[in-house]
Write a structure and sequence with these properties.
The chain has about 325 residues and is α+β, with helices and mostly antiparallel strands. It contains seven helices and eleven strands. Helix 2 packs antiparallel against helix 3 and helix 2 runs antiparallel to helix 5.
């Protein structure tokens, strides 16, 4: 078969007549006999490697007889049984190509020289001529039905691989683009930059990713002085986040602090001074847009440091929106 045959799409099985049945039967029998020959050659190699030269020579004689019977069976002759394979005539071999291979094999074999180099030369001669026989027999027994099965097997493997690859890509795309799960936003604060929030006063509230802009309010049991805001915006990897603003209110509802995160220019010096993040990378940067971030872990954290301490903070409002990192915000 040539490569074009393997990619031809034809699922119609060829019909099998008596002649083709005989050819296919010869192919099966020849494969079995070739396998036995290779197995016996392997035994010879084991004997030689263990310095059992006489055993290797004895087995070599019977391997030669196996090869003669392989050719004889291929041509429909009776099996030869003899303790002296060298005496078997090869003149009855009809196919000239087969006869040339056996003639070459017989002329190069030496069953009397017990030197290791001679036995090793025999192994090489056997191996070379067995390969020639295998190639010639398979060529002569090639048939449309076996080719059909080979093509179907090859195409089944290729289609299976393509299916698995496409299924893998589909699953990957789905996992990347599926909406974020319902989540929570957590906030903790500290009154000193020297001591980052430890989590003792953390407040957690529900959040609703994929709902465009959302204002989330967190209320503390009592007023606090704040110099560090520690924000857990989401608890999912591969999320895209935009943070628009942070507002802090006093107990009476008056505004204690307000910070807009809309970029006025591309100089991010201010943000690098006031932001410290973990498991978060910067996202798209554009003037007039809220600062954008991408999470790269399951527990992303933002530490925000206002310019000065914020006094009497009773509640905090964060305006933000989130989506899967593979998605883009519409504006």
């Amino acid at each position: 078969m040539i490569w074009k045959d393997y990619i031809t799409l034809n699922f119609s099985k060829p019909s099998e007549d008596e002649e083709m049945k005989e050819i296919r039967s010869k192919r099966v029998q020849s494969k079995k006999r070739l396998s036995d020959c290779y197995s016996r050659l392997e035994t010879i190699e084991i004997c030689t490697s263990n310095s059992k030269i006489q055993d290797a020579l004895l087995i070599s004689k019977y391997l030669y007889l196996d090869i003669l019977n392989l050719v004889g069976a291929f041509e429909g002759k009776e099996e030869v049984k003899t303790s002296d394979p060298e005496s078997v005539s090869i003149d009855s071999i009809q196919n000239p190509d087969l006869k040339n291979i056996i003639s070459d094999l017989k002329s190069k074999l030496n069953f009397t020289n017990e030197e290791e180099d001679s036995v090793l030369q025999n192994e090489g001669v056997f191996s070379e001529n067995l390969y020639k026989l295998e190639k010639l027999i398979f060529k002569k027994t090639e048939n449309p039905i076996d080719n059909y099965y080979k093509r179907i097997k090859f195409q089944s493997i290729v289609f299976s691989i393509l299916f698995l690859v496409l299924m893998g890509l589909g699953i990957k795309t789905y996992l990347e683009k599926r909406p974020l799960k319902e989540d929570t936003l957590s906030l903790d604060v500290s009154e000193s930059k020297e001591k980052l929030p430890s989590g003792d006063s953390m407040i957690t509230v529900p959040s609703h990713p994929e709902k465009n802009w959302e204002t989330i309010k967190i209320e503390f049991p009592e007023e606090k002085t704040v110099e560090v805001f520690k924000i857990f915006p989401v608890h999912q990897n591969k999320a895209r986040i935009q943070l628009k603003s942070l507002k802090a209110f006093k107990a009476d509802g008056s505004l204690a602090y307000e910070k807009s995160f809309i970029l006025q220019n591309l100089d991010l010096t201010e943000f690098t001074k006031t932001f410290q993040t973990d498991q978060i990378y910067p996202g798209k940067i554009a003037i007039g847009r809220a600062i954008e971030m991408e999470t790269i872990g399951p527990n992303p954290v933002i530490h925000f440091f206002p310019e000065n301490k914020v006094q009497s903070v009773k509640s905090v409002e964060l305006e933000l929106r989130m989506t899967k990192r593979a998605n883009k915000f519409p504006d």
